[in-house]
Amino acid sequence: MLAAQSGHLDVVRYLAVKCRANVNATDKSGDTVVMKAASHGHCHVARFLVVDDEAGLNVTALAKAVAKGSFDDVRFLAEECRVDTSATDISGATPLMTAAQHGRILIVRYLVVECKAGVNAADKYGDTPLTKSAANGHFDVVRTLASEYGADVSAVNNNGTTPLMQAAQYGHIDVVRYLAGDHAVDVNAADISGTNALMIAAQYGHISVVRYLAGDCGVDANATNSTRTTALMIATQYGNMDVVRYLVTQCRANVTRTDIPLYVLLLSAVTK
């Protein structure tokens, strides 16, 4: 790293090629060898590591710079070293997906506008940049991708999961409201198991999401998935009593099923 930081290409080449030094190693701050070279303006070293690839470096350098939010390093690698900004890692993720996942809004804008990154590209799991940003609650990234760059707000991954479901799973109510309110996504959409966003929110105990989907959006609290399980049954299974109480008292969730626990039946009885 010291050699790369100082611009000593011969030393870097010797260590990387002859001594098989780990060029993907990071220091305590998370910087790689390439990032050290890039941040100190040594394009010839960075180009050797990334473009000539004698050291066997893949997309790791750019991905790490993106994840860390090092905008100057990302731009340097893309413009000066001509790193392929559409290259994917072993999971099929692009630099844009990494930026979206980590909430790096400036890098997201740069990759889309300057590098023409595909906003609807999907990794091997079917997840898009919007899906990843929704799952991690990066509202600004979600809004930018959807409203400014036309990302598909209803894209489904290999499991049939939508960005709305991802946001519901992790309790990101602002993202849920935005997708359902501003983009009118299908709040009743279900994944390959028949599970919808309300059921997912009920499972993870996100009462604010449950209230919004059932109360404001009118999602049917008695809808069932492929195993005939309702949101109420899921909430009881996971012990989310605030969700159970809301579904029973405010949504008139069906408690007549024989597989509904006794305490739910009692709750229903005392609230009538």
From TrEMBL:
Q: What is this protein called?
A: Uncharacterized protein
Biological source species: Phytophthora rubi
* Classification via InterPro entries: Ankyrin_rpt, Ankyrin_rpt-contain_sf
The answer to keyword Transport applying to this record is no
| Source taxon at top rank | Eukaryota
Pfam families, per database record? Ank (PF00023), Ank_2 (PF12796), Ank_4 (PF13637)
Instruction: Report each ANK repeat as a residue range.
Output: 91-124, 125-158, 159-179
Q: PROSITE patterns this protein is in?
A: ANK_REP_REGION (PS50297), ANK_REPEAT (PS50088)
Q: Which UniProt keywords apply?
A: ANK repeat, Repeat
Alphabetized Gene3D superfamilies for the sequence: Ankyrin repeat-containing domain
